[in-house]
């Protein structure tokens, strides 16, 4: 389909390992967001890209988390030295353009990360 | 962004209208009200948004009070597939949505 695609859908890793999560936004969408969602909570903002640049990374919890979007399309969320507290569903969303407000965000199904 | 208050859970009978309230008493003039929903194990889905006027689309209606301190999302004929967590969000000009815990709407047969 033409929706936001996230891979892998499930990832199990061991504490201390490095993890990459990928997001393919809807074609032509310039804005891309990463959120993470813990059990029983609403999605928590991590980072927002407009084009290739991170316009707002204020939600990244610490320097173990990093995200890139080198060509303004696909984005990768990178987590170093994973901890058990990083276990969550990581959601990606994209939107068509930056207007006076967020507009409609299209979310992917998420990548469920489990750190053992 | 303004904080929102929503009931933790609500029930609705299938075929009846579901009215989901949201309080946002600290909303400022340029902040929009957004509604998203999240069906179990799926990503959130946009429903509707508005600034001042009431809005309607194929999914729902959004009623915003004149003072803008509260709003109601109306699903006119709820179905079992509408069972989900519904999030009311107030978003300003910082281009990010801050989700709370939302309202779990359960539509009963």
Strand order of the largest sheet of chain B: 1-9-8-3-4
What would you report as the Rg of chain A, rounded to the nearest angstrom? 13 Å
Instruction: Estimate the mean pLDDT confidence of chain A.
Output: 93
Helical residues, percent of chain A: under 10%
The major beta sheet of chain B can be summarized as: 5 strands, mixed
Q: Give the strand tally of chain A.
A: 11
Polypeptide structure, described:
The complex is a heterodimer of chains A (about 120) and B (about 110). Chain A is mainly β and about 120 residues long. Chain A is about 0% helix and about 45% strand. Chain A contains no helices and eleven strands. Chain A is globular. The mean pLDDT of chain A is about 95. Chain B is mostly beta strands and about 110 residues long. Chain B contains no helices and nine strands. A five-stranded mixed β-sheet of chain B has the order 1-9-8-3-4, with no helix packed on it. Chain B starts with 8 loop residues before the first strand and ends with a strand. In chain B, about 40% of the residues are buried. Chains A and B meet through strand 4, strand 5 and strand 10 of A and strand 3, strand 4 and strand 8 of B.
Task: Give the arrangement of secondary structure elements.
The complex is a heterodimer of chains A (116) and B (109).
Chain A: E1 5-7, E2 10-13, E3 19-24, E4 31-37, E5 44-50, E6 53-56, E7 65-68, E8 75-79, E9 88-95, E10 106-107, E11 111-115
Parallel strand pairs in A: 2-11
Antiparallel strand pairs in A: 1-3, 3-8, 4-5, 4-9, 5-6, 7-8, 9-10, 9-11
Chain B: E1 9-13, E2 18-23, E3 32-38, E4 45-50, E5 55-56, E6 61-64, E7 70-75, E8 84-91, E9 103-108
Parallel strand pairs in B: 1-9
Antiparallel strand pairs in B: 2-7, 3-4, 3-8, 5-6, 6-7, 8-9
């Amino acid at each position: 389909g033409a929706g936001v695609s996230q891979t892998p859908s499930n990832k199990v890793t061991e504490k201390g390992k490095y993890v990459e999560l990928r997001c393919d936004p809807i074609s032509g969408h310039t804005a891309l967001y990463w959120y993470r969602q813990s059990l029983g909570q609403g999605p928590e903002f991590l980072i927002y890209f407009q084009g290739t640049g991170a316009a707002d990374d204020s939600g990244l919890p610490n320097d173990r988390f990093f995200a890139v979007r080198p060509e303004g399309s696909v984005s990768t969320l990178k987590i170093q030295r994973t901890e058990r507290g990083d276990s969550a569903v990581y959601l990606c969303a994209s939107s068509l353009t930056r207007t006076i407000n967020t507009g409609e965000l299209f979310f992917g199904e998420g990548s469920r990360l489990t750190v053992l | 962004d303004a904080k929102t208050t929503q009931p933790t859970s609500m029930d609705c009978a299938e075929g009846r209208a579901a009215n989901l309230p949201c309080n946002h008493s600290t909303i400022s003039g340029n902040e929009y009200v957004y509604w998203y929903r999240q069906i179990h194990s799926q990503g959130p889905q946009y429903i509707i948004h508005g600034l001042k006027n009431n809005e309607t689309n194929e999914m729902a209606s959004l009623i915003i009070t004149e003072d803008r301190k509260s709003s109601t999302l109306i699903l006119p004929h709820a179905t079992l597939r509408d069972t989900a967590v519904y999030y009311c969000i107030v978003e300003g000009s910082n281009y990010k949505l801050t989700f709370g815990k939302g309202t779990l709407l359960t539509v009963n047969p």
